[in-house]
Design goal:
The structure is a single chain. The chain has a 38-stranded mixed sheet that branches. Strands 1-4-5 form a three-stranded antiparallel sheet. With 635 residues, it is mainly beta. The chain has seven helices and 41 strands. The relative contact order is 0.03.
Length: 635
Amino acid sequence: MRLLAKLLTSLLIVLVVALCTFLTVLHTSYGLPMVQRVVSTLTPYQLNASALEYNILSPFNIAFDDPELLQDNRGKSVAYLSFTISPLDSLTGQLVLKSLVIRGATIDDTLPEWVPSTLSVKHIALDDLAYDSDGLSFSQADVQLSNWQNSEEKWGTWNGKFQFSAPHISLQGQTLSNLLLDSEKRDDIWEVWGLSFNSIFGNITGSATLDANNHWTVHQLGVSDARIEPSEALSTLSSQWQAFSQHYSMDIRRLDLLDVSAEMPTLSIDHLNLSAQSMTVKNGELTWANSNVPSLLSFNANLLRYDTWVLTDALGEFSLSPDLLRVNAFSSKINDEGFISFAGDISKARVQLQTLVVNGFDLTLQAPLLTSLNTAWSALDDVQIASLSVRHTNITVPDVNFPLQLIGINLRGNRLSLREKQRSGMWQGDLTVSMKAASVNRISVSAPHASMSVSDGVWQLDTLSLSFNQGQLNATAKVDLANPSRPWEMKAQGLSIPTTLYQQWFDVNLPLSGEHDVYAAFSGLAASNDSFAYSLTGTLNATPHRVLFSRSPGTTLSQDILNVFMEAERAQDAVALPLVMGDIAITADRGRIHITPTTIEDDNEKTELSGEWDLVTRDGELSNKTMKSNTLEID
């Protein structure tokens, strides 16, 4: 045993002396030839280098300038190679390097054969790195990564920090410049602490986390100074995005766009600044967060164009969830003419606005747009506006059957409820309406004005004033909306009212023209058609002036009058002839209507018209007495 101990001690001394001698020689000019001889003796490779760098104070670190490793006169060279062995970690038989620095290397999709299969490196620095393939190429790149080890993966695996920078990189046809990546991989989680690069689509910055379920959590994504237009690169990027989004889902916590402009066939954006929070991308579709954590969106832009709509100086701040759009503020010029501003809540079934300001618009509502607006309005259950202001706005509806033109509209409303439980009307609030002029189905109205309010469920038309070319109409009305029976009353008084108004506005078969003075006062119930018929009560008195009656050739005056009440079609060759009519007096008492006899005459005939109807039983009699009495039974 003593002999064996002496032999082991002697062997250890020999090894220590040999190691010290080897390390000492490395520190001399004979170090490089000695290493070359060791490599060629112990491996099938030949090592060439211009210089060897070694410091006895760092005994486990060695470096080579311009090293080249050859096998059968074939091999690869780099500008610099340095490595530091970790002897304690390598005692298990696995080669472990504390650090590895390579400069000026060109890599491909596989590791060189001479790399030991059990090699692991705690820290790798690759400077001036180059790579070229069909989908990815770069040069002059700097890479640092931690805890790398050789594996079946083509470039090995790592678990730790990964940092990458390159002046230029080509990724699947997209050219990126000034790329910087700071990231860390921890088991199945990849943390991207920071990413930035420049592209033809702008400057990009961001940070994100990729988990084991192929789900990205984007903590921040910024795009600045972007100018986007149709191009092959944009089409390629769109295809790449579709392929990417099919494999990955994404939560975007914050998105910032700074000075972004785009010109597309149906969309134009000029100098857009946008900030968005809490969005989700799944299968390529963008959705907003749930109602518990709503998405936030704010933006401003010099110009936004979609199809034929142009918004300038647009500003908006929104809170979005799947069922609710909360508009904290929105304002914009539209089509470079009018201004709109509003704030409030919008959902599929309800609109509740705190403010709505419309100013200076000149709107032409064509049939398709009018139909779309009516459809959208009908889909709403409730519409409320706390403060409404409309000024200097014109509206034109070029409908052949009922053309409408409103000029210089001014509206002022407070606490308005315009639709409740899918019923349109004014259910709450105060509203004042005035205009410079209007043309309603070819009847001109000057300076119309109306003021109405709803208080404690009672709708009240405080005043309605309509000025015509020759006359004036004033009216008031009241309806108790809180009462299930809907009791109502109205009063109207006018001078020289155009008689064509009834046919043009209310589609009443009354082929008369001229003017008339009128006084009307009625009341009743409006809960249903039956309650209206049972309750209608009031009087109407009218004095016609300059009356023209559309007459059919070859008929008598009495027959033409009866044809009016029979709603017979007027002959195409009808002629407007003058009539002289006496005062008209109509009374209604609980649905029973009575026409006081009134005289009607032309140059050849004089007749007396009277009648009675019962709206409840729908029975009535109209008497038209001339030289020979004619009676028409109405059922």
